[in-house]
């Protein structure tokens, strides 16, 4: 049974901030030196900016460092000038999905891998999971940084581990839950919603399956969707995440205020994605992260493309002293600009899930352009009982909250695609017309 939430590494997770900053400063200098002397990519970037490691003395000097993007890594695919250790020290490769371009590779040393297990194990501890619990893991077991980390991390703290992954059908997942009685579920919100949908079709009450904790991540998830999952399964839901390049570095605690970032292993900034300047307190911006402990491929000012904000800078009542960011609002890459207005899938999802008759509905966003070069936003939504009133409600909510006009197309349930990995709900037809 899930126990009381705890800190896996209290000496690090609860470190006083003055000590934390001192440690970050030392690790930053060491990391910068390694990047400059061992990685051709950074050596060239430093020379272009006219800086050397000696210019980085304090945390405030972080802004002098170059940014790193996926394009930087793709240009050197697979690992040309990107390794900070000899190839013989690399024990595993992970890779991004490559859905938005050539994939990027994340090489890991044994120390990197053990660090990643520890970081993910912190998520379970924050939710109260221990050796008395059993995990059913829905994350894929493959190149993507998912099940091959979530599973071993559970084993690290003595949990039993059922490695079903994303390749097992929802019906079979439900059978295994009924047969093996896991108490913890981990996976993408999309897959969890799909399993819930299948359970309803089979008249299986997910509230009675014994799942006590659900860890969801790998894609943006609205509060409405988290609340729906919580209600459907009668389980506590924790938001978790990271990136293939950075490892898993943020998670929710039992206070459910925001997402703690593992500041003992990274330094993070929230910047305006266009001006590259620090945003004001509580203002949304792009999450930019500098690693402090990665050996194989350390990263300086990595642009995650994730949009968030800082929601809490003070120590949390859970005992953790790390600052907390908001649940990811979306990605710069997923955001579409329609008639000059930025639109995120999470905004549309929040509106749709707030309408009672659509709380279980799948949706899709289609952006097109007329012959007169006018952008048109269409929202396709599954509805059991399509009505003009429902369409009007969505149109009004979008107009009021996002300040843009839209068309709404209500379709039959089961019409739109389902996802067992990361959901892709935006179709931009304008790109095909360029």
How would you summarize what this structure contains?
The protein has 434 residues and is an alpha/beta fold. Helices cover 30% and strands 23% of the residues.
Protein described:
This protein has 434 residues and is α/β, with parallel strands linked by helices. Helix content is 30%, strand content 23%. It has 11 helices and 21 strands. The chain has helices spanning 10-13, 17-38, 40-49, 70-75, 110-127, 147-156, 170-180, 189-201, 223-233, 345-353, 388-402, and strands at residues 90-95, 105-109, 134-137, 160-162, 184-187, 213-216, 236-243, 247-252, 259-261, 266-271, 285-291, 302-308, 310-312, 324-325, 330-331, 336-338, 341-343, 363-369, 375-382, 407-411, 426-428. The strands form 5 sheets. It has a 9-stranded mixed sheet, sandwiched between helices. A 4-stranded antiparallel sheet has the order 10-11-12-15. Helix 5 packs across helix 6 (147-156) and helix 8 (189-201) crosses helix 9 (223-233). The N and C termini lie far apart (56 Å).
**In whole angstroms, how far apart are the ends?**
56 Å
Beta-strand portion reads 15-25%
| Major sheet details | 9 strands, mixed
Question: Which bin fits the share of residues in helices?
Answer: 25-40%
